[in-house]
Amino acid sequence: MLKGKKIAVYITGGIAAYKSADLVRRLIKEGAEVKVAMTSAATEFITPYTLQILSKHDVYTDIFDEKDSANVSHIHLADWSELAVVAPATANIMAKMANGIADDFATTTLLATTAPIFIVPAMNTHMLGNAATVRNWKQLEEDGHFIMEPDTGFLAEGYEGKGRFPEPENIVETIQSFLLRNQQDLPLTGKKFVVTAGGTKERLDPVRYITNDSSGKMGYSLAIAARNMGADVTLVSASDNLETPFGVQMVSVDSAGQMYEAVFKEFEQADVIIMAAAVSDYTPKNQAKQKIKKSEEDLTIFLAKTKDILATMGQKKTHQFLVGFAAETHDVAKYAKGKLEKKKADMIVANDVSKPHAGFNKDTNEVTIFSTDEEPVEVSVRTKKEVAEEIIQQVIKKMSK
Ligand code: CTP
Predict the structure, then answer these.
(1) How far is the CA of 368 from the centre of ligand 1 (A)?
(2) Pocket lining: 256 vs ligand 1, CB cutoff 6 Å
(3) Which of 89, 113, 106, 85 is nearest to 24 (CA)?
(4) How far is CA 385 from the centre of its chain?
(5) pLDDT for the residue 199
């Protein structure tokens, strides 16, 4: 989606400046044309030559060093760019931008550009929390600029805190969805999706639970793919190890019972519900208030069946399009078709989890999509992101019939 997009990347002087080389490389890999401007402090951390080689364009550092006498270069870059990305953004550049100060190439061009501005702050945690930075951050948002939250973790100073430059991969992802948010008329614009993800946790006592191997990756990829097509997405997640995708409404749950409640809260308004979660079929009949102590040789735990969320929705649906998953180890087609009928789903995505590249906790998947009154669609081994995009395409196709 960044194909042909003209992006100006402004690198300012922080230790994370070296990571912006990777960011530039990734933007280009996604099809963008990138031109780079650097503050003089940034050139202390990484050389313009590195960025010149990566971007295949001259790098702008000095406002009076005109590359082409036919153009005033800062105005040329300001007008050329369709998006301005300030990464990393120091407290200093945020302060200057918030106050309209233009005293070098980067700040002057940022003042002159009419392109949307996407800011990726990275700085010491105390600088980030300083009242002046907080004030400038607020001002920049009020001025209509987008600011991506820094990560929390180990800082260059040797201690933990918020202020880390996010992974370039996540920055690219966030830029893509930022651009999409401003785009109208996507195939799913105005559609409300509910996607469930992860393996539910059924508590035995305050410290123990029953769960399964689902990582949530498939559900998260589906939420992102639907969002990228313009849908308004709520992600009901039982997974706590994945980052909340930008622009997606997150509802965190633990148990099958909680997932049932969360899904039905959204059910009426939803257009499409995708049950990618691995919902536990059984839950302990009694949840001990205190830790169960070791006693006899054998321990019996009584389990009660959980409510089948998909099947209940199948009975109650009015306009909703229901997509279920079927994780099987044998007779995949037979069980998938059975679930399509029994649960009154519109589509079942089946995978053979005994295969090495498919199923729980993997980065790839291989699925067959079964829909009512249609021939099954085989999706060969590919990343979960690609499988998700294919599933969303199939949903769009089927809904438009
Ligand atoms: N599902 C659900 N509620 C449950 C159990 C499953 O909504 N309590 C959904 C899953 O999210 C999935 C589909 O039903 O989309 C099929 O789940 P699966 O575990 O494959 O099927 P089950 O009906 O549980 O049957 P079995 O475990 O015997 O294969």
Answers:
(1) 16
(2) yes
(3) 85
(4) 11
(5) 97
Long-range contacts of 373-378 (CB under 8 A, 24+ apart): 374/398, 376/333
Respond yes or no: is residue 170 known to be catalytic: no
Minimum CA distance residue for ligand 1 atom 27: 281
Question: What is the signed CA dihedral for 377, 380, 384, 389, rounded to 10 degrees?
Answer: -40
Asked if residue 275 has its Cβ within 6 Å of ligand 1, the reply is yes
In the chain, where the domains are located = 6-181, 192-400
CATH of 6-181, one of 3.40.50.620, 3.40.50.300, 3.40.50.720, 3.40.50.1950: 3.40.50.1950
| Weakly modelled stretches of the chain, pLDDT under 70 | 184
pTM for this entry = 0.75
Domains 6-181 and 192-400 share a fold: yes
CA 341 / ligand 1 centre spacing (Å): 13
Nearest atom of ligand 1 to the alpha carbon of 323: 15
**What is the H or E stretch that residue 170 is in?**
helix 168-181
pLDDT at 361: 79
- Confirm or reject: Cβ of 236 under 6 Å from ligand 1: no
The CATH number of 192-400 is 3.40.50.10300
* Ligand 1 atom at shortest distance from the alpha carbon of 307: 8
Q: Compute, in angstroms, the gap from residue 312 CA to the centroid of ligand 1.
A: 11
* pLDDT digit string, tens, across residues 31-66: 999 999 999 999 999 999 999 999 999 999 998 887
Radius of gyration of the chain from Cα atoms? 25
How far apart are alpha carbons 91 and 97 in whole angstroms?
10
pLDDT at 184: 67
Residue 214 Cβ < 6 Å to ligand 1: no
| Cα–ligand 1 centroid distance for 246 (angstroms) | 28
* Ligand 1 pocket, residue 197 CB under 6 Å: no
Of 178, 121, 176, 182, which is closest to residue 149 (Cα–Cα)? Answer: 121
